[in-house]
Amino acid sequence: MRIQEEQIWLKENAGSHRENAGNNRHFPEIIGRSQELRETLELISIVAPTYSTVLILGETGTGKELVARAIHNGSSRKDQPMIKVNCAALPPNLIESELFGHERGSFTGAVDRRIGKFELAHKGTLFLDEIGELPLELQVKLLRALQEKEIERVGGRTTIKVDVRIVTATNRNLMKEVEEGRFRADLFYRLNVFPIGIPALRERRDDIPLLAAHFIEKISKKAGRPVVKMEKAVVDQITRYDWPGNIRELEHVIERSVLLNKESVLKEVYLPDVRLNAVAVRTEEFAVKTIQENERDHIINVLRHCNGKVAGYGGAAEFLGVPPSTLSSKLKRLGIQKMHY
Length: 341
Hints:
- The chain is built from 16 helices and nine strands.
- The protein is α/β, with parallel strands linked by helices and 341 residues long.
- It has three domains: 2-18 and 204-279, Orthogonal Bundle (Helicase, Ruva Protein, domain 3), CATH 1.10.8.60; 35-197, Rossmann fold, CATH 3.40.50; 291-340.
- The strands form three sheets. The protein has a five-stranded parallel beta sheet. A two-stranded antiparallel sheet has the order 4-5.
- The longest helix is centred in the middle third of the chain and has 16 residues, at 208-223.
- The chain is globular and about 75 Å long.
- The N and C termini lie far apart (67 Å).
- 30% of the residues are buried.
- Mean pLDDT is 84; it is low at 1-23 and 274-287.
């Protein structure tokens, strides 16, 4: 009986993800048929044709860039470029130049004029990934560019008008970041015009077999191997797993499993050790803040405890054991303002 059930599932599975692509005909890159995903696709359909700013929210590996591309492709700007900037991948001292460009000689190493991402995305879409990682000093300049619809290159003396649609994404809780003083409230409200939440893979388990079948075909073709099908037991196994790394983790697991498979049917997938996975998650959570971020948070908490008093008896400087002048310098260096405490 079990063999018959497997044969029936394999027969149905052979074209499942192709049927799914037909269901999502407006978003062919997004695979899935679950109710949770359909709700997300409905939001994309509503906002894509407009000029509204979009904030994409979701865990790492859920496909935020695919959603950004679907928004761009569904807009009147689809024939113009979509430019991506990963705010977490650039050193703080280079982000301003990356976004706004620079003039020759504006700083050491600026041997030529550089056109920034805002200018490159003119008439198109600018996708700012990991926006929660943008330093506070750059948040001010980004807000000004969004409000004024103009930029100024580093070292430049003239403003440049830009027509850019902004789509941002983050895996952070930006409201919490605002409350803790790491993200500007005014910028948050400017970006949070139309938020779209992407469900984690464990919240859309019905889509896991479809995604796995899609990756099997994609990886098999790339590796020059016959396309294999999944045994029913494998489908049950991958559907039960929680996938903390979401779709990205699923793709990597399927790739390894396909490359190691020597039969026409995939009978085993190589899931990560759950214990190692838990350690990795705890390590990631522990490493989220830098020493400077911890110092900043601690100073803000002390200032709140002291009702905003910096110097004198019962002031934050006394609690922290530093001269008031030193604390004032730290406040300026860390970008701490009264609004934060």
